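Hey, can you fold this one?
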Amino acid sequence: MKATFNPPVRTLMGPGPSDVSPRVLSAMARPTIGHLDPEFIRMMDEIKEMLQLLFKTKSPLTMPVSAPGSAGMEACFVNLVEPGDKVVVCQNGVFGGRMKENVERFGGEAIMVQDDWGKPVDLDKVEKALADNDNVKALAFVHAETSTGVRSDAESLCALAQKYGCLSIVDAVTSLGGIDVDMDGWGIDAIYSGTQKCLSCPPGISPVAFGEKAIDAVKNRKTPVPSWFLDKNLVMGYWGGGGKRAYHHTAPVNSLYALHESLVMLHEEGMENAWQRHQLHHDALRAGLEAMGVNFLVDEECRLPQLNTVFVPEGVDEAEVRTRLLNEYSLEIGAGLGALAGKVWRIGLMGSACNRRNVMFCLSALENTLSSMNAPITRGVAALAAEAVYNA
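Sure. Predicted structure:
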């Protein structure tokens, strides 16, 4: 007979999931009620309102998809892309490639704009692709690329989409809650995120929002949405607002308790304060790592504060370092993906994990581990450099 599973206590400083606040974990343990219970519907309305504030949108089609961020991505593409549609897809990491797969699976044509991993999306390349192709339905790009830690200029990219008369589809999985996201101000038409990054929730929920032009596109499709579960025409009967709701699916009740609590915490802190917190602790971590001799992949002007991708020192077995950090310190950092596998680590400072204790703990554990492996680093300076940032 199997015993009860008791997971170890970890400090999660990888690319996600991030540490979950005790308040959020406690919320999940509250009594389960029905997904059509009037009190649950009241909470749904509060979630929707707080997500609208977070996305900076008035869109009525703002809601959490009952599945992880990848389902939020699919919800945007399956509703907006029809057979034969042209979509300009920007790829500067793993997740632009997943956008391409979605476009093609739903019968669209993906026109690729490729940039080096670790570099932001090139605006000139995007404009050329839009100018060279007639009848482009949408421009799709990743705001904060999780595989590299680079931020692209979402406002300027959305302006290009508007200039050429196409929709914009934006991946904000790693950006939402960590840096500014302005759906209405930037003119974003469809956007999706995930709860396990800067919102510090357990994985499994994907906040999405569709603007007016995207809603019109869904309503005026020539073909039915090929996914029943993700069809926004159907889901809005449940998430549309007001007291009367049409049954669509059994929502993950306790996971939505967690999302509600995490959004309450974020709005208690203030969104701008949360962005400043992520920047402060990134600055301290960066100072410590660079003093140690560990360098960043991404240029400073387009670097994400919440996802720090750094080069593995020469001659070091990066997998062994991660294994030792996990086994000896119960600390998780992430490996590189794709072409960066074996060459970089991804160190997350997301949500509740973004704090002074974690920064100092990570620097100490990494320095101790690298020192014991005779890595070419400078010892005894990382903590001092980070403390100097905090004391400035």
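The chain has a mean pLDDT of 96. Let me know if you want another pass with a different chain boundary.
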